[in-house]
Amino acid sequence: MNGYGRTTASLLFLAGLVVMLYALFTALPFGAAPMQIGQEIVARAPGETGAANIVTAILLGYRGFDTLGEVTILFVAATAAGLVLSGAGAGELPRQAGGFILRAAADLLFPFLVLLGAYIIVHGHLTPGGGFQGGAILAAAFFIPLLANPASPLNHSTATLIEGFAGAAFIIIGLLSLLGGDAFLTPLFGKGTLGDLFSAGSLPLLYLAIGLKVGSELAGLMARIVEVGGKS
Amino acid sequence: MSADATLLADLLGRALYGGAIMLIAIGIYAVVARYNLMRVLLGLVLVESGVNLFIVAIGYRADAAAPIIVGGVTDVAMVDPLPQALVLTAIVIGVGVLALASALLIRVKETFGTLDTREVARVLAADPAAAGKSTGSAVAPAAARETANAGSAS
Predict the structure, then answer these.
(1) Contacting residues for A217 by C-beta, under 8 A, at least 6 apart
(2) Using the beta-carbon criterion (under 8 Å), do B106 and A225 form an inter-chain contact?
(3) Distances (CA, A) of B61 to A30, B18, B65
(4) Does the beta-carbon distance from A77 to B96 stay under 8 Å?
(5) Is A84 at the interface with chain B, CB within 8 A?
(6) What is the pLDDT along chain A (232 residues), one digit of tens a residue?
(7) Comparing C-alpha atoms, which of A179, A120, A136, A173 is closest to residue B99?
(8) Which residues in chain A are contacts of B62 at CB distance < 8 A?
(9) SS3 at position A1
């Protein structure tokens, strides 16, 4: 009775929501890109930032300050999760190791995942990808061995150290442009040749910092959840 | 653009927008109608995916390339890069939200032994001090809200 009423009410609500969203969405012309600013950015970004990947140009060149805020949000979430989980299930070896195939595959995958993550981070201004995506792959590289064999825990102090240095590097690069008389996080070091690995000034350095920060943060976060999760 | 291509773009648009609407609807259903907190969290993730899909779909242009310059050719039509940059941000923040919420769920499970909001409400109604045992400040407001929900629904 109670459950049925709740289900009926939510289904009615959903039907109305779907109709409303459908009406809204069909008013948008598909495939015509209603916003003008995107095309303006596409036309100007290569000349202004030197990055071949325009998404990277937006993320680090035009709104680098927002990206700093976003990295901060991720940092706060990771810290809060660590705080909530601290003390829970400490000092226990939660589960037994996985089978031979799982452990061997995890060891085999590790170097390739690290290589792929590093490649995606370093080429963030040239090809699809960048610091966030490559950082997630790096985190997976360190997390999969932990899943296969929980007895070899992640070194949390090293992860925290890398994370701190990467975050500081991002801010220091931003402050360097203040010294030159520009605004905070203005791209430095010239633009280089469009499409070269060493181009787009300080954008690849910023993405490297983000990649290391996101990678160590996510790896530490997931490791903490695994370490605690085995208890309950 | 030929008639076939127009029809194809129209179908693609309907599929993408429809998919986004369905993801949002399924996610909201899980959030409002399910009692297991893990499913509520997964519903939240579904809503987020639907919204992300919709935002990326807005930036689509027919006959346009990905917003990456290949071989120095700059006069190609490209899809709108701005929604992609925004969604990249949203995905990362979504991961943060998911991680924090799962940490809270682990604590709820530890404190109450269950993730079912009805069970949690029952425990709280019988012994309001139960929430104060470990991470009371984090658990109590959500549990109190669930108690209020259960009370008004019955």
Answers:
(1) A74, A75, A78, A135, A139, A159, A163
(2) yes
(3) 8, 18, 8
(4) yes
(5) yes
(6) 466 787 888 888 888 888 888 888 777 777 666 677 777 787 777 777 777 788 888 888 788 888 888 888 888 888 888 888 876 654 455 566 778 888 888 888 889 999 999 898 888 878 888 888 888 898 888 888 887 877 776 777 788 888 888 888 888 888 888 787 777 777 777 666 666 667 767 788 888 888 888 888 888 888 877 777 555 4
(7) A136
(8) 31-32
(9) coil
| Strand, coil or helix: A66 | helix
Give the ipTM: 0.78
Residue A24 corresponds to which tokens in the numbers above?
A: 């809204």
Q: What angle do CA B145, B148, B154 make, to 5 degrees?
A: 140
Integer Cα distance of B18 and A230 in angstroms: 40
Q: Indicate yes or no: pTM above 0.80.
A: no
DSSP E strand stretches across chain A = none
List of residues 6+ apart from A163 with CB closer than 8 A: A75, A212, A213, A216, A217, A220
Rg over alpha carbons for chain B, rounded to the nearest Å, is: 22
